[in-house]
């Protein structure tokens, strides 16, 4: 070992190490975790950035502990020495700074979200705050803990609830469904009572009896169904703030109060129908809006429904049904035919088939037997089996997917910042305009009732809900549609940027190709026994995580040679590996790597194959020719990208001949061969410096620096790799055709967002002067306001239509 890592604790199946060079380096530790997880023998990796600690659970039969420690030492050293791209983002482990997310109940419009966000941002304990009305979530980065955050949101008149586990998230979804039902009931009751009030009001009766009837019908609407408006407005007033509820309370309250006073004074100009109509139309609009928002959030609901609420656990040989949140790592679970796998784990006994399409994108069932990994949420076939839980709660693949979709849907795009700024100052501005309207009409000689009606119309028509919903509803619909297609987006910025991509840089192995290279040529040099060479090289490569290394090990095993443990294993990412096996010095890698080590080599031409060279004790010993087939969808995917106007480049560590053969087969015109991870990063940086908007597609191992440097990184994800947040976008199943789908969806999303913003801003620009000039009655204003929000959400829902 080189001393990069320090062994803290070692058991037969678990090792804990510390990497002093990476203390506090959350971003690099995340990369180290990704690299280690790629090895088949490693079952689980847990990282504590503050301590630079890694706990690794592994299979000692597939990899001895000594080999694992050498692998960790080598990979950790490479990560620590890699050039740093940017300071890592603040995490919970950096001092007392952390990120806390909660669901927020009680928000009724975009100005509610703007109010909460502005209030939280002013707190000295908050570094940044983001509140999303469409997803009803608040995310805060700072030293504020969850109870304090909930208290601050509660002080503003809203309810904050935890959303850490899938069960808590499911409860929130159920509350949202109940909220929609309550909104429907409240709206319909208000409309039924308001209808006769409007009919009576239009007749303008002079009889006091009819006035009393209007009062009796309007009062339960305004003070009953509309009571939440006044309650929230009063809480906000105590905090010296205001939102759309304030406008509605002022509008409906003014009309109702004026009518009651006029009725008691014996006057005939009453506005009971306006007060009741305002509340009814707003409630009706919000019900329709909530129902439409619910459809936009279908992606999260479908994901949450994948995890069963209970599981069958074996305790003292007795099968017990327990809530899934009560499960712990190591529990033995029973999964019966047709049931969903409750959590991630490994099969202990029994054989079956699983539908893993939710994470792999493959519709064909996968056969599972003892020792095979299973993923929570997948549907069991006809067999029954027992499994041991290896990940529960927030550590499961499904929880990781939900987090990705949650973060993407709650993200705010740069295009939304202007709308947020407008919404944050809108309510005070509208109140001022309404006051000026009232005073101007009075000064012009209008009756008090006319001036009041026009001021109320201004208050109602100016709701910024449509403006606040324009972007987040489109993001929700788009990320939900992407998830159904096997594209998991971690942040909204990636969704926006993908629309403008001009260049895509592809890795080759495992990206354009299937990632299952096989040795198609092997020749030992004169003086070397082929079986001896295979035994030594296989042992050296047994500790490697590289595709080519695994193909050499598989080839040795196919020849009946089981690789033994190697000593002093080390690797140079993208070049080769060094090891000592049975007293022999073994080098395996590219021709340039061996030449740099002083080994004279002569490489014959291998048409369309990647040469892998081996040296033993400083002498060229063998040549392997490794070939990998392109994915069946690669050529069509590249052609589709070209049709979209996107330029394609292949940057690979492979040799020139093999790289160009694959590139020609799939239609990529530009190739950069023998590119190290640093070289790939340089290619991305050079393209960006030239003004290109660059996307990088790779498998998240050697491509990690380039993925981080690109405007949008696309990680190829298969199986449990879906939960690894290696890039802003993860493509399930490794189908690069999904990149073109992502670009098309991104362009359509941005087009719909622009349409929404133009409609919302244009609507308010035209409507407010119209209301101030007396062209809109309060009832018409409230119904038009509700219609504007519903139209924006409906337009966003077009993104959910399948191709």
Write up what this structure looks like.
It is a single chain. By secondary structure, this protein is an alpha+beta fold. Among the domains are: 6-81, 2-Layer Sandwich (Gyrase A, domain 2); 98-169, Alpha-Beta Plaits (2-Layer Sandwich), CATH 3.30.70; 317-395, Calcium-transporting ATPase, cytoplasmic transduction domain A (Distorted Sandwich); 486-514 and 630-744, Rossmann fold (3-Layer(aba) Sandwich), CATH 3.40.50.1000; 518-627, Calcium-transporting ATPase, cytoplasmic domain N (3-Layer(aba) Sandwich). It contains 27 helices and 30 strands. The strands form six sheets. It has a seven-stranded mixed β-sheet with strand order 18-30-29-28-19-26-27, sandwiched between helices. The chain has a six-stranded antiparallel β-sheet with strand order 10-9-11-17-12-15, with no helix packed on it. A six-stranded antiparallel β-sheet has the order 20-25-24-23-22-21. It is elongated, with a radius of gyration of 32 Å. The model is unreliable at 83-95 and 719-726 (pLDDT under 50).
List keywords for this structure.
Gyrase A, domain 2, Calcium-transporting ATPase, cytoplasmic transduction domain A, 7-stranded mixed sheet, 6-stranded antiparallel sheet, Alpha-Beta Plaits, elongated, alpha+beta, 803 residues
What structural category arises from helix and sheet content? alpha+beta
Discrete helix count: 27
Mean pLDDT: 79
Describe the biggest sheet?
A: 7 strands, mixed
The total of beta strands comes to 30
Can you give me a brief rundown of this structure?
By secondary structure, this protein is α+β, with helices and mostly antiparallel strands. It contains 27 helices and 30 strands.
């Amino acid at each position: 070992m080189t001393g990069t890592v320090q062994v803290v604790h070692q058991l037969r199946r678990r090792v804990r190490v510390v990497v002093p060079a990476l203390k506090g380096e959350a971003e690099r530790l995340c990369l180290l975790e990704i690299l280690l997880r790629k090895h088949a023998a490693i079952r689980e990796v847990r990282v504590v950035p503050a301590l630079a600690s890694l706990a690794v659970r592994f299979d000692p039969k597939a990899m001895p502990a000594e080999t694992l420690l050498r692998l960790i030492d080598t990979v950790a050293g490479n990560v620590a020495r890699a050039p740093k791209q940017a300071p890592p983002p603040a995490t919970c482990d950096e001092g007392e700074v952390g990120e806390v997310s909660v669901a927020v109940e009680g928000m009724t419009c975009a100005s509610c979200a703007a109010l909460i966000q502005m209030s939280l941002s002013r707190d000295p304990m908050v570094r940044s705050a983001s509140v999303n009305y469409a997803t009803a979530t608040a995310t805060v980065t700072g030293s504020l803990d969850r109870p304090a955050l909930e208290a601050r949101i509660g002080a503003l008149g809203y309810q904050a609830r935890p959303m850490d586990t899938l069960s808590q998230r499911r409860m929130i979804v159920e509350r949202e469904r109940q909220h929609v039902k309550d909104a429907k009931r409240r709206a319909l009751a208000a409309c039924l009572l308001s209808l006769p009030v409007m009919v009576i009001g239009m007749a303008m009766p002079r009889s006091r009896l009819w006035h009393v009837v209007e009062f009796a019908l309007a009062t339960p609407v305004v003070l009953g169904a509309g009571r939440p408006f006044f309650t929230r407005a009063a809480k906000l007033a105590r905090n010296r703030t205001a939102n759309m509820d304030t406008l509605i309370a002022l509008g409906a309250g003014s009309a109702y109060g004026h009518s009651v006073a006029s009725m008691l004074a014996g006057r005939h100009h009453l506005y009971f129908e306006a007060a009741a109509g305002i509340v009814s139309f707003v409630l009706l609009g919000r019900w329709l809006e909530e129902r439409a928002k619910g459809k936009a959030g279908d992606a999260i609901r479908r994901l949450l429904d994948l995890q069963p609420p209970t599981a069958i656990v074996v305790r003292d040989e007795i099968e017990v049904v327990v809530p899934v949140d009560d499960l712990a790592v190591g529990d033995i679970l029973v999964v019966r035919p047709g049931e969903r796998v409750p959590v991630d784990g490994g099969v202990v006994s029994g054989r079956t088939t699983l539908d893993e399409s939710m994470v792999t994108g493959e519709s064909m069932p996968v056969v599972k037997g003892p020792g095979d990994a299973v993923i929570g949420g997948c549907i069991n076939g006809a067999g029954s089996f027992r499994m041991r839980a290896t990940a529960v709660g927030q550590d499961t693949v499904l929880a990781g997917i939900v987090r990705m979709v949650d973060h993407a849907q709650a993200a705010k795009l740069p295009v939304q910042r202007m709308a947020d700024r407008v919404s944050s100052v809108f309510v005070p501005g509208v109140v001022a305009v309404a006051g000026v309207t009232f005073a101007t009409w009075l000064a012009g000689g209008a009756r008090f009732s006319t001036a009041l009606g026009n001021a109320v119309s201004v208050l109602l028509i100016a709701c910024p809900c449509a403006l606040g919903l324009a972007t987040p509803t489109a993001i929700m619909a788009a990320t939900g549609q992407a998830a159904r297609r096997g594209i998991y987006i971690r942040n909204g910025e990636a969704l926006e940027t993908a629309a403008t991509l001009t260049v895509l840089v592809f890795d080759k192995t495992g990206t354009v190709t299937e990632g299952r290279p096989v040795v198609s040529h092997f020749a030992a040099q004169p003086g070397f026994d082929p079986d001896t060479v295979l035994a030594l090289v296989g042992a050296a490569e047994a500790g490697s995580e590289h595709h080519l290394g695994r193909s050499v090990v598989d080839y040795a095993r196919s020849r009946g040679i089981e690789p033994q443990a190697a000593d002093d294993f080390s690797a140079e990412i993208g070049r080769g590996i060094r090891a000592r096996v049975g007293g022999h010095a073994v080098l395996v890698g590219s021709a340039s790597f061996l030449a740099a080590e002083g080994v004279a080599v002569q490489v014959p031409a291998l048409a369309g194959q990647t040469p892998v060279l081996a040296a033993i004790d400083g002498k060229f010993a063998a040549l392997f020719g490794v070939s990998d087939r392109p994915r069946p969808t690669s050529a069509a995917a590249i052609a589709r990208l070209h049709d979209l106007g996107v330029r394609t480049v292949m940057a690979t560590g492979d040799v020139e001949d093999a790289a160009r053969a694959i590139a020609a087969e799939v239609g990529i015109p530009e190739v950069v061969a023998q590119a190290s991870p640093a070289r790939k990063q340089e290619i991305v940086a050079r393209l960006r410096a030239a003004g290109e908007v660059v996307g990088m597609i790779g498998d998240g191992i050697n491509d990690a620096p380039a993925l981080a440097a690109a405007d949008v990184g696309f990680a190829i994800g298969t199986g449990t790799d879906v939960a690894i947040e290696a890039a802003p976008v993860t493509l399930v199943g490794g189908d690069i055709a999904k990149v073109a789908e992502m670009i098309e969806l991104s362009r359509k999303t941005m087009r719909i967002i622009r349409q929404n913003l133009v409609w919302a801003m244009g609507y308010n620009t035209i409507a407010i002067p119209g209301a101030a000039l007396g062209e809109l009655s309060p009832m018409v204003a409230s119904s038009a306001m509700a219609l504007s929000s519903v139209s924006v959400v409906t337009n966003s829902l077009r993104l959910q239509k399948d191709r």
